[in-house]
Amino acid sequence: MHKILVIDDDPDMITVIKLTLKKNGYEVASAAYEAQAYEQVNAFKPDLILLDVLLSGSDGRNICKFLKSRDVSKHIPVIVFSGHPSAQKNIRDYGADDFLAKPFQESDLLGKVKNYLPV
Q1: Is the Cβ–Cβ distance between 25 and 60 less than 8 Å?
Q2: 58 Cβ contact partners less than 8 Å away, ≥ 6 residues apart
Q3: How far apart are the first and last CA of the chain?
Q4: How far is Cα 83 from Cα 87, in angstroms, rounded to an integer?
Q5: What predicted TM-score, i.e. pTM, was given to this entire model?
Q6: Total domain count for the chain?
Q7: Is 109 helix (H, G, I), strand (E, B) or coil?
Q8: Residues 6 or more apart whose Cβ sits within 8 Å of residue 25
Q9: CATH number, domain with residue 84
Q10: Which residues are recorded with the post-translational modification 4-aspartylphosphate (predicted)?
Q11: CA–CA gap between residue 79 and residue 53 (Å, rounded)
Q12: Contact by Cβ (8 Å): 81, 51
């Protein structure tokens, strides 16, 4: 079973994403802030990370850049998501593998995930 880490500070968004992914056969963990995200990457060892750009007190792009600079996590695909369309412009500069605009449909989320975690 593929493991996905969702990093977002919106509990409702985490709940919706977790339910969607779990019902489609993925194991899911979540983190709401930067330090917790790093802890979960080390403990949970995800196969994919879904990362919101705007977190309370942190910029998801910088979290992505840090994760992509570490040997233990640089191989993990990171899909960044945001409600701000301009956030997509420079995500590759931070090492993100893909972008998902909020709000998104369940099929859009699953399509992105399946690009990186084929069944």
Answers
A1: no
A2: 33, 34
A3: 9
A4: 8
A5: 0.95
A6: 1
A7: helix
A8: 1, 2
A9: 3.40.50.2300
A10: 52
A11: 10
A12: yes
Residue where the block lists tokens 């493991």: 3
Sign of the four-CA dihedral 110, 22, 78, 7: positive
Do 63 and 81 meet the contact criterion of CB atoms below 8 Å apart?
Answer: no
32, two tokens:
């709401």
pLDDT tens for 60-80 read 999 999 999 999 999 999 999
**1-46: pLDDT as tens digits:** 999 999 999 999 999 999 999 999 999 999 999 999 999 999 999 9
Question: What are the tokens at 49?
Answer: 């990370």
Q: Contact, 110 vs 24, CB < 8 A?
A: yes
Rounded to the nearest 10 degrees, the angle between the axes of helix 106-116 and helix 11-23 is 60
Query: For residue 5, which amino acid is it?
Result: L
CA distance 60 to 67: 10
Domain holding 32, by residue range, is: 3-116
DSSP string, 6-41: EE-S-HHHHHHHHHHHHHTT-EEEEESSHHHHHHHH
